[in-house]
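Researcher: Here's a chain I'd like modeled. Treat it as a single chain, no partners, no ligands.
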Amino acid sequence: MKEDTSEPNEKSPNLAKEADAASPALEDLQMAYDDLNRRYLRLAADFDNYRRRMARELDTRTTFAIEDFAVELLDVVDNFERAEKADGAGLREGMEQIRKLFAAILERHGIRPIECRNLPFDPERHEAIACVPSAAEEGTVIDEVIRGYCMQDKVIRCSKVVVSKGKEE
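Model: Modeled as a single isolated chain. Structure tokens:
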């Protein structure tokens, strides 16, 4: 038995026409893909450059902020040097002026002391270095050995304090 092979040969020209018709569509899709891929790669490179530039800019800002703060502190150093040369009477007054200047500089930069005397002990803001009997209520800060400081609302150094044990019996 002989098979009929005339049918596939008749379809062959149609398939070739369809392939020719699909070929431009495939080429268009490939071109669109290549274009999108190039745009994606450019965008990724631009973003990477942006990220590096922002990191450098942040580093520069931080450096200049520290530099400005250091320049302000140099005024305090100059005043300390002048106070060292002063005689006994002017020394105390000079030291008080230096303390005020230093406190003003810290305040301008959002750094302020933590108040703690006669307040309840707060382990997030205070570090107890001693616990002594006293007339004050138990758990009350009765003395500040080293002052603590906050910058904005963040504790940057805890106060070292003496806490009351209450009355000794």
